[in-house]
């Protein structure tokens, strides 16, 4: 009898992990799902409560795994935490690592999030471990964090008509599942984008069609965007998001790649599909 591989998924209850775990389970894979929240239930998986900041909890979460999906919550020390987790995986003899990075990651980027991801990629390569890097572009699901404002008919962001090949996170999870359960991905870097580069005005139009209400795009000065976010997020994250949007506004995230289709055999979801599937979130009660 063949034993199914054991895959540890860090961030199992996050945006990508929530969709990735059931995809892996559906292939017959044994999944060790790591979360910091003891109240979260993860049906079908081996749930482990662990925190990347606590190696004492992380070690048993990684021990004995055949592969690791390396992801972490957004934090100011995310790069250091991921590097520490990669080192521990290497020490424990995990043979495969799939790293969730970001489109445009590089160590000399002026965008802190891209720079941090570049540092983790560089470190993982230096370990000599069998690894694959996934670089998704802007998540369409990030719009859900703006749902309250959008439901009032306004999509505001510090960008004008620059195009971004934004991606649905369900496709990112599907691509990750394909890499984790497939072969031939060693040393590869995959760029995960939507099927077209779109403007934020076109995103607003798609949301309008899906909800049946008028949603208008408003270009917003970066300082106003930062001021609005400062009431919700810590300063480092606000500054990082402003840098992200400056990166988008410069037209540096408009390339369309077809790695999702190559990995999954299905076309990437477009903005209209995302808008239809999530219309209730953008509709006022």
Please tell me about this protein's structure:
The chain is an alpha/beta fold and 285 residues long. It has two domains: 6-136, 3-Layer(aba) Sandwich (Rossmann fold), CATH 3.40.50; 137-168 and 193-254 and 269-285, UDP-galactose 4-epimerase, domain 1 (Alpha-Beta Complex), CATH 3.90.25.10. It is 40% helix and 15% strand. It has eleven helices and nine strands. The chain has helices spanning 17-26, 55-62, 78-91, 112-127, 147-151, 169-181, 200-211, 222-229, 235-249, 259-264, 271-277; strands at 6-9, 30-35, 46-49, 67-70, 96-100, 130-136, 154-157, 189-192, 216-219. It has a seven-stranded parallel β-sheet with strand order 3-2-1-4-5-6-8, sandwiched between helices. Strand 4 (67-70), helix 3 and strand 5 form a beta-alpha-beta unit. The longest helix has 16 residues, at 112-127. The protein is globular, with a radius of gyration of 19 Å. The model has no long low-confidence stretch (mean pLDDT 95).
Summarize the model shown:
The protein has 285 residues and is an alpha/beta fold.
Keywords:
285 residues, Rossmann fold, 7-stranded parallel β-sheet, two-stranded parallel sheet, 9 strands, UDP-galactose 4-epimerase, domain 1, 11 helices, alpha/beta
In angstroms, what is the radius of gyration?
Answer: 19 Å
Largest sheet: 7 strands, parallel
At CATH level 2, the architecture of the largest domain is 3-Layer(aba) Sandwich
Tally of contiguous helical segments: 11
| Helix-strand sequence | EHEEHEHEHEHEHEHEHHHH
Helical content, roughly? 40-55%
The total count of strands amounts to: 9
The span between the termini is 53 Å
Q: Give the overall average pLDDT.
A: 95
CATH topological fold name of the largest domain = Rossmann fold
Query: What spatial order of strands do you see in the largest sheet?
Result: 3-2-1-4-5-6-8
Return residue spans where pLDDT drops below 50 for at least 5 consecutive residues: none
Q: Return the domain count.
A: 2
Tell me the structural class. alpha/beta
């Amino acid at each position: 009898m063949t034993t199914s591989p054991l895959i540890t998924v860090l961030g199992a209850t996050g945006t990508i992990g929530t969709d990735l775990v059931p995809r892996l389970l559906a292939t017959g894979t044994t999944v060790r799902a790591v979360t910091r929240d003891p109240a979260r239930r993860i049906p079908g998986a081996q749930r482990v409560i662990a925190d990347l900041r606590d190696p004492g909890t992380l070690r048993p979460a990684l021990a004995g795994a055949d592969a690791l999906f390396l992801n972490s919550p957004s934090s100011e020390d995310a790069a250091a935490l991921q590097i520490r987790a990669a080192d521990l995986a290497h020490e424990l003899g995990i043979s495969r690592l799939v790293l969730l990075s970001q489109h445009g990651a590089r160590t000399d980027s002026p965008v802190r999030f891209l720079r941090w991801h570049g540092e983790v990629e560089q470190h993982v390569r230096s370990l000599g471990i069998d690894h694959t890097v996934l670089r998704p572009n802007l998540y369409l699901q990030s719009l859900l964090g703006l749902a309250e404002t959008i439901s009032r008919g306004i999509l505001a962001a510090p960008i004008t008509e620059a195009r971004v090949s934004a991606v649905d996170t369900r496709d990112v999870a599907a691509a990750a599942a394909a890499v984790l359960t497939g072969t031939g991905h060693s040393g590869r870097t995959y760029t995960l984008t939507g099927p077209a580069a779109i403007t934020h005005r076109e995103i607003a139009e798609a949301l309008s069609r899906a909800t049946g209400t008028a949603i208008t795009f408003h270009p917003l000065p970066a300082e106003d965007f930062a001021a609005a976010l400062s009431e919700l997020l810590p300063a480092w994250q606000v500054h990082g998001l402003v840098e992200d949007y400056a990166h988008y506004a410069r037209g540096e995230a408009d390339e369309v790649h077809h790695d999702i289709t190559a990995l999954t055999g299905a076309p990437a979801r477009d903005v209209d599909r995302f808008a239809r599937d999530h219309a209730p979130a953008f509709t006022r009660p």
